[in-house]
Amino acid sequence: MKHDTDTATFTLTKADCRALLAFAAKDATRPHLAVVNFDPAGGFAAATDGHALVKAQNCGRSDGDAYSVPRAQFEAAARLLRRKDHRLTVSRIGDTVGLLAHDETGAHLGNVVTPPANATFPPVDQVIPGDSPCPSPAHQAFNCELFARLALVQKAAGAIRARFHFANDELAPFKATCDDRESGTTWTSVIMPTRC
Known about the structure:
The chain has 196 residues and is of the alpha+beta class. It has a single domain (2-191), classed as DNA Polymerase III, Chain A, domain 2 (Roll). It has helices at 14-23, 71-78, 144-157; strands at residues 2-4, 9-13, 35-39, 44-48, 52-58, 67-70, 87-93, 96-102, 108-114, 161-164, 174-180, 185-191. The strands form two sheets. It has a seven-stranded antiparallel sheet with strand order 6-3-4-5-12-11-10. The protein has a five-stranded antiparallel sheet with strand order 1-2-7-8-9. A hairpin with a 4-residue loop joins strand 3 and strand 4. 36% of the residues are buried. The mean pLDDT is 85.
């Protein structure tokens, strides 16, 4: 993923789109989670279903309020990317969000225009644990299906570094990070444990 700070646009690869969609909720009754969120001021895109979260953080920041693209519209735009070298550019244009698919030469492949989701995305950074050392591990249980999503993040960015984060023998999340050196994006994934 690349974030153009001059135009406040995000450009995603097909792999980036697949990774974000893997974490976005599919449940339409949870409209604040059935989205892909873009935050130009924070320089990141994020998605969560409430059990697992992914955040693609680019080093650039720009002016603009955060907005969310409904999952169905983001999915429709991502389907326009037929090859791995195709790109999707996402930008806020007044009261709408434009998702423009293009090939490596810039040729137009199609687009989706949608109003942003009318729901508040949860505060991502409050969910992501810090990088402090882990004390002794407690008994943890995780839904293994959530770990399969990490393979899509790895395809988007490369090798993954993972760490369990424990605090006072409470249930603690699993955190994985990877850096995409080509785009300068750091992907952070968090998987919440289940209660046994």
